[in-house]
Amino acid sequence: MAFLQSMPKSETIKLREKHVGSACQLFFRSSPLKIVRGIAQFMYDETGERYLDCINNVAHVGHCHPHVVEAGRNQMSLISTNNRYLHDELVILAERLVKTMPESLSVCFFVNSGSEANDLALRLARIHTKKKDVITLDHAYHGHLTSMIDVSPYKFNLPGGPEKPEWVHVAPVPDVYRGKYRHPRDSQSEEELGNLYANEVGEICKQVKETKGGVCAFIAESLQSCGGQIIPPDGYLKKVYEYVREANGVCIADEVQVGFGRSGTHMWAFQTQDVVPDIVTMGKPMGNGHPVAAVITTPEIAKSFSDTGVEYFNTYGGNPVSCAIANAVLDVIEEERLMERAARVGNHLLSRCEGLKHKHRLVGDVRGRGLFVGVELVTDKETRTPATAEAKHVVNRMREEKILISRDGPDSNVLKFKPPMVFTMQDADRLVDTLDRILSELEENMKSVQIKLEVLVSPIREDAESGDVSLKSSIQKYVKAV
């Protein structure tokens, strides 16, 4: 693959260190990968080494899908301009997206990224409700723009993060494994746990309505991603939406990471909770790596926005090339039946991971829907103490085995799997078989270390039990054991 790079890897690293901000994340920073090519669910480095990509939820229909590449190439050879001119690709895309939505969601705005989509959604909500207060979930991430950092505890809770604005209200994430209400400590059903979490949002709505006349919006990923692959309990969003609307607010469903059929059963993850949002945002997988995103809302909210008299213009949002690519992505999802594959392969992956939970003491919880799966590692299944260091070790070992995974959650102890939708049963088996072997290695090493520590401290323990607590004696026995 040397012919696919312009310079040696060492020179690439030097130039990046010199000219690219150090705050920009780089996977495996101490020994970074140089990826020069991608095909379907695989990525290749400059030496030709092939890696199974288990985390790239942007290359939704597979890296460099021929149909998507061809659509972009063809349209780019004709024209790429802004959406102030009529173009068929834009209106075809809008119609296709709207057809996947509940009837009330029928107006589209096109932007360039999920961050932009969420920023516009918040702007729409504020103009429509004439309120400012926003309810978000703990550990949530909604984008890198300043407006989105303000509603993303995943970012502002960091030691160097900005202060939470007073108009932002944080509700507990509906995590039934390690959250405020959980199985089996709180012996309610899943629906009852959902109500407990929803009531937390209800309390915020009540307080804000009493003091400020109402809320602006509730924003949440339909399945929380960066917060640790959280699957909300049944009925949660339905109850939350009721509370928010009673407080005169609108409900924003962030589908940037979990939309376009990833759940396996529905095109949009909010549909798994049987709710109808007022605004839906989407991005990442929409262009299979090309920057394109969208906001879809109701005619009423769109009219409020239009009635301000301030036109909305986005130079690149909805340009013909982006729209042609997004249409090609929808073609592939439909023609290759990728949503059905996500259900089939995802169920297999989830089942195999459940087997790991029963086999390994490090695996505390397994959860997911379709090709959206999380494996939470803990050092103690009773206390559910996060195994952060162990999760980091697993990610690095998997990389050595040419499998790329990542970890997330507030304690960075959740292994997350969000692969391209072309992932196969064989890929899932390879992923789990390798993870199984690495967990066995890790647990064996931990057991070995524990035995050695026991040998080292036993002379001191014997002294304490016998009453011989002489420091000199204890040190001599400890040194002898070493």
Note the topology.
Blueprint lengths: L8 H11 L15 E5 L2 E4 L4 E4 L12 H11 L11 H12 L7 E5 L2 H16 L4 E4 L8 H4 L3 H4 L11 E4 L18 H23 L4 E5 L14 H11 L3 E5 L24 E4 L10 E5 L1 H8 L13 H16 L2 H22 L3 E7 L2 E9 L4 E2 L1 H13 L2 E2 L1 E3 L5 E4 L7 H42 L4 H11 L1
Parallel strand pairs: 3-14, 5-6, 5-7, 7-8, 8-9
Antiparallel strand pairs: 1-2, 2-3, 4-10, 9-10, 11-12, 12-13, 12-16, 15-16
Structure description:
- With 482 residues, this protein is of the alpha/beta class.
- 42% of the residues lie in helices and 15% in strands.
- The strands form three sheets. It has a seven-stranded mixed beta sheet, sandwiched between helices. Strands 11, 12, 13, 15 and 16 form a five-stranded antiparallel beta sheet that branches.
- β12 and β13 form a beta hairpin.
- The longest helix has 42 residues, at 425-466.
- It is globular.
Strand tally: 16
Content-based structural category? alpha/beta
- Read across the widest sheet, the strand sequence of neighbours is 4-10-9-8-7-5-6
Unreliable segments of 5+ consecutive residues = 478-482
Strand fraction band?
A: 5-15%
